[in-house]
Amino acid sequence: MTPEQEKEWNEWLADRPDSVKAVGALVNPYTLYINNKRRDQRVSLVSIYENGTVKICVLRQFNLSPSIDFEVFGVDPHDLEPTTDMRPFDEWVKDNPIGSTPLYVSRGQ
Predict the structure, then answer these.
(1) In what order do the strands lie in the sheet with 42-48?
(2) How far, in Å, are 5, 43, 93, 102 from residue 55 at the CA level?
(3) Which of 3, 16, 19, 34 has its CA 20 to 30 A from that of 55?
(4) Domain boundaries, the chain
(5) Is the pLDDT of residue 103 over 60?
(6) What is the mean pLDDT of residues 40-56?
(7) Do the beta carbons of residue 63 and residue 42 sit within 8 Å?
């Protein structure tokens, strides 16, 4: 996130409820994330809900997905891990073959 983006994000968060501010400290719309529930999904933030969950966009550019981006709501922001790997899916999968990482990662639950 650039300094300008960080300033804009902090200004937007300033007038939000505390629950949204808490989630906004964990995630932001300028970062690409790996969804730890689906290690093969790279996603972006769409929105933050007051119940502490987020809506994410599964981006076709970075994923093996249908020909459209799609959104998933009710995601725990703690399941999102920042990544700087911006390679398109067809390049990314060469280093991360499907099935080489678990689709669902247990967090000791």
Answers:
(1) 70-75, 54-58, 42-48, 32-35, 80-83
(2) 20, 10, 25, 22
(3) 3
(4) 3-95
(5) no
(6) 91
(7) yes
- pTM: predicted TM-score of the whole model, two decimal places: 0.76
Which of 11, 66, 57 lies closest to 33 in space, CA to CA? Answer: 57
CB atoms within 10 A of CB 78: 12
Burial of 24 (0-12, 13-18, 19+ CB in 10 A): buried
Rounded to whole angstroms, what are the CA distances from 102 to 20, 39, 74? 30, 7, 21
Structure letter (DSSP) for residue 69: -
* Backbone phi, psi, residue 63, to 5°: -140, 155
Give the helix/strand (H/E) hosting 34. Answer: strand 32-35
For β-strands 32-35 and 42-48, DSSP reports them as antiparallel
